[in-house]
Design a protein that fits this description.
Layout (H helix, E strand, L loop, with lengths): L1 H22 L4 E5 L5 E6 L5 E7 L2 E6 L6 E11 L4 E10 L5 E8 L13 E8 L6 E5 L7 H7 L13 E8 L9 E13 L2 H23 L1
Antiparallel strand pairs: 1-11, 2-5, 3-4, 4-11, 5-10, 6-9, 6-11, 7-8, 7-10
Helix pairs in contact: 1-3
């Protein structure tokens, strides 16, 4: 009788633990990119870029041809794992004529040579800029790798592997929809990664595991 009562109590404790996990809000995890970064210019000189001024974390340029690219990039001293992050949030100021910005995350793919910029996997997102808007939160799932990269590297796109296991850096440059002969200015004021901490889930698994272990030990004694 006592053992049956104990099993009932364990069952209720397990249900209570699951309800508590579902009811209480998840712990938000925010990591801002504040470490020392290696900045470099991103300029496609063949596409008519002119009047380039780079002053990290800001840049200024203009285009003489449509579809030109200019901007800047930065790299980390060591690769980072962003697989558990849900959003990349960027605070920035842009000029009135800056209409489109491309955010490109560079990752190292294990199927290609490590550390070689030409073989790194680009994961990009086009942003439509608004002059009065200063904060952009980009869901990580909205980033994609262009098909041409897989063709150039002769590797398959399985759509199954995580793309953010080895993040090397980020590049930001003017998109294809910007007008020519207009000053394009951008200043990055902050970048943060946002996600949900998995510590609560780990605690729930441990909690349920302990209850199951107690229930099994009681049954074995029977």
């Amino acid at each position: 009788m006592k053992k049956r009562y104990l099993r009932t109590v364990l069952l209720f404790l397990g249900i209570a633990g699951i309800i508590a996990y579902l009811v209480f809000p998840s712990e938000k995890k925010v990591e801002c990119i504040e470490k020392e970064l290696k900045f470099y210019p991103y300029v496609d000189s063949a596409s008519g870029v002119q009047n380039v001024e780079i002053n990290p974390p800001a840049f200024k340029c203009s285009l003489s041809k449509e579809g030109g690219h200019c901007g800047m990039g930065f790299s980390f001293n060591e690769t980072e794992n962003w697989n558990l992050m849900d959003y990349l949030t960027i605070d920035m100021q842009s000029s009135v004529d800056f209409e489109e910005l491309i955010v490109q995350i560079l990752t190292i793919d294990t199927r290609t040579r490590e550390g070689d910029r030409s073989t790194m996997m680009p994961v990009i997102k086009e942003l439509k800029l608004e002059h009065n808007k200063k904060r952009y939160s980009i869901p990580m799932e909205h980033f994609y790798t262009p098909d041409y990269w897989f063709e150039q590297q002769n590797v398959r796109d399985t759509h199954k592997s995580k793309r953010f296991s080895f993040v090397h850096g980020i590049e930001m440059y003017s998109g294809w929809k910007n007008k020519t002969d207009k000053p394009l200015e951008l200043k990055i004021e902050g970048m943060c990664l946002e996600g949900v901490s998995n510590s609560r889930f780990v605690l729930l698994v441990l909690y349920i595991g302990i209850l199951i272990a107690i229930a099994i030990s009681v049954r074995v004694k029977d």
